[in-house]
Amino acid sequence: MAGNGIRIAMVAGEASGDLLASHLIKALKQHLPDATFYGIGGPKMSAQGFDAWWPLEKLAVRGYVEVLKHYREITGIRRQLKKRLLEEKPDVFIGVDAPDFNLDLERGLKNKGIPAIHYVSPSIWAWRGKRIHKIARSVSRMLCLFPFEPALYEAKGVPVDYVGHPVADMVPLEINRQSAREKLNLPLEAPIFAFLPGSRQSELEYMADTFIETAKRIYARMPKALFLVPLATRETRLLFETAIYRHQALDVPFTLLFGHSHDAMAAADTVLVASGTATLEAALLKRPMAIAYRMAPFSWRLMKRMKYQPWVGLPNILAGQFVVPEFLQDDATPDNLAQALLNLQTDKLLRSRIEDEFTRIHLQLRQNTAEKAAAAILSVLGRRPVRADDVPAAV
């Protein structure tokens, strides 16, 4: 069934949301080929024909202190967007993650009769659980990436679907380390560590020094080790390079990459990763890891008070136990991280157990996410998915 005239407004607030939304747009176009998509988004969404009224970089701010600095600009964008959407009256609004921006917007649209779907549950199971009351008032439907989330919404009467995680669909169940090393022209037998200090400049400002000092300690004890550092932008690369000079680490064999985070982790034996989506990607690639994170002290004190679980890394949350070590704020020292990574590198039995658990998680999350999410949105629109037998045979 064609989607003639269907207008779909969307907001994605950072790179991970841009990826999720781009897959969703592509899936929806299979069922609604004439639909139009517009709002706030990134380059991957634009590549699928999305009309970005504002770029997602305007919203890609993390941490309480950092958000406060940009508060007036962000709220101004939301006010302008809400006004324009109420004038445009799209058939549905899809907020992709970015709950602090999207939930207030969704409530305003929902109250005016525009269905509001939120794609990616906020982490109410980890901290700020009382948000579920605001969510219930704001959304017409919630699309969840993790299997333990729907029960939380069902208990509050919020329509919900578990759609799985799109990265689990993208990543093969088995990863060939040798092929990944050949692709990056790396030695096949060397001990290789992938270091992922974050995708934002603010993360590099807190993590780069610690990661470099960690590499120095590992290299002193394992002189054949190599270190891959995928970085998202020229700005983050410059921050890391400057930190290398500052710590007099020019002799440490770092290989800095533009992007290629999956390739780097696939080629590595062991990964050091800043907490976030990259921890899940490392798990899906079946790589033992240590998780580290540092942020502004004020932001850390607030977050620490509001969290409910002993874990912050997605692999541990999904497993319900400490499968891999986490080092947060003052515990994220070079000595602690270096020792944890060396343990993971050399303990074969531990590595095997971690890889088995990550395979179980991968199978659980692999749900053909984009199609499931598209089907849920079509149901809100009162449309049925196009099937192969709906398409007339060529004459």
Features:
395 residues, alpha/beta, Rossmann fold, 2 domains, six-stranded parallel β-sheet, disordered C terminus
Protein described:
The protein starts with 6 loop residues before the first strand and ends in a 14-residue tail after the last helix. The protein folds into 2 domains: 182 residues, 3-Layer(aba) Sandwich (Rossmann fold); 189 residues, Glycogen Phosphorylase B (Rossmann fold, 3-Layer(aba) Sandwich), CATH 3.40.50. Helix 2 links the parallel strand 2 and strand 3. It is built from 18 helices and 13 strands. It is 49% helix and 16% strand. It has 395 residues and is an alpha/beta fold. The chain is globular, with a radius of gyration of 22 Å. Strands 3-2-1-4-5-6-7 form a 7-stranded parallel β-sheet, with helices on both faces.
Strand content: 15-25%
**CATH fold group of the largest domain:** Rossmann fold
Unreliable stretches, pLDDT < 50, 5 or more residues? 391-395
Shape: globular
CATH H-level superfamily title of the largest domain: Glycogen Phosphorylase B
Radius of gyration computed on alpha carbons: 22 Å
Q: What CATH first level of the largest domain would be assigned?
A: Alpha Beta
N→C terminal distance: 19 Å
Per CATH, which architecture of the largest domain?
3-Layer(aba) Sandwich
Largest sheet: 7 strands, parallel
Structural class: alpha/beta
Helical residues, percent = 40-55%
Task: Give a count of the beta strands, DSSP E runs of length 2 or more.
Answer: 13
Number of domains: 2
Q: What does this entry show, briefly?
A:
This protein is of the alpha/beta class. The protein has 18 helices and 13 strands. The protein has 2 domains: 7-164 and 367-390, 3-Layer(aba) Sandwich (Rossmann fold); 177-365, Rossmann fold, CATH 3.40.50.
